DNA sequence: GGTTTTGGTGAACGGTGTTTACAAGAGTTC
DNA sequence: GAACTCTTGTAAACACCGTTCACCAAAACC
């Protein structure tokens, strides 16, 4: 039941091969090895032919970023689904651990997507996972005291905007949330959690801890515990409802 | 009273110009613009001549990293010296703010030094600043309860090693410290602080916050407050001694 | 069957890192 | 001062890069 013509199918197939070759080059030989000629060589065609599919080398790299985000999102969703506890705390933990594991297994991709002085964000393919998770977290109706006045007033405007983004992300999933569940205080802690999660993972991937860490995993787990506790989960996770 | 011969002086001068040109290219036109031919063009020589000074393009980039670290360290030392309060909390704050300011003002340098999947650490030129600061922090003899059993036992070995590094860094500055001042609990919080500091700065430099932050500085200051409070400083900094 | 669209080629331009052979000058030694 | 060595540059070349252009064959369309 493919609506596509023969030609469209061939084109889509070639495009898939291009992305695949680009990805393999990035993984195996680094960012600088992702070159038009190398990709073309892999497909058995010549470099100018690639211009029938992408406007420039840069455009191809951007597409590559999007693919990476989508793939990572799929992995994280799988990690999320693999957790059968039904407890939000465990789910958060699973996704955060999944993010770390993915980053360590794909350092080149991580560097390209998360640590390039690129314009905005590669794609919100990525943010969707975290937003969905935040959605579940909110929907779980955890009642934790995070007074709004804990956060400086200058931040209220930005946090309120993020609050709206989160609300929208949640409502897309068909869940409505009482206002007081997702107050600015909690939002603030969510942002702080992202800072710590990203900070630890990036430091580990790039080897920028101030000393040689022989086994970073327990340190990560320890940070995760404190993170969850800050947001409002108890360590032994008896906090669901 | 330069011991150097005329030739050595000339050589040193040329090398200085090479570094300077490389730096300018990085800052003004990005990492990919730091090319041997461009540098040579700037000096009015040809590219192969650079091989008399550096083994390869990669070696030159490594040298560039070291230079960047050294310059940043100088800036942070200046920030540290500019604080005349004499209070350690203010000094920590000054250096952390200085680090953020430097990173935002030098995104290309930051990306090169702190976010490249490079081997170990570019140079410990960089770590020295933080170590010295940590040294002062320790020397200030803040007595805050951070029980060792707060941190998981698996981390003890690594943290103890870092503890030794810190001790050495302090003793170089001619200060001896009682053992109980720098216990593993405090060490752990210092590492966690580095995670948060790095995480926030990197996210800001790379624009990877999950929403548009109109004015990130108060958010940074807020994080700093909580960081210092976690380590054991009171917010209004009456904690010195 | 003729026409248009599509997806490929090969040649070329200017750019890159790197190697090699060679030359000119500075420093040293007799 | 002549002879020698060491240093620092050059020019040419190689292989690779992104990109453009003219061209071409086959597929799709009418």
TrEMBL record, chains A, B:
InterPro entries: Homeodomain-like_sf, HTH-type_TetR-like_transc_reg, HTH_TetR, MT1864/Rv1816-like_C, Tet_transcr_reg_TetR-rel_C_sf. Residues 12-72 form the HTH tetR-type domain. Keywords: DNA-binding, Transcription, Transcription regulation. Residues 35-54 bind DNA. Pfam families: TetR_C_33, TetR_N. GO terms for molecular function: DNA-binding transcription factor activity; transcription cis-regulatory region binding. This is TetR family transcriptional regulator. It comes from Lentzea atacamensis.
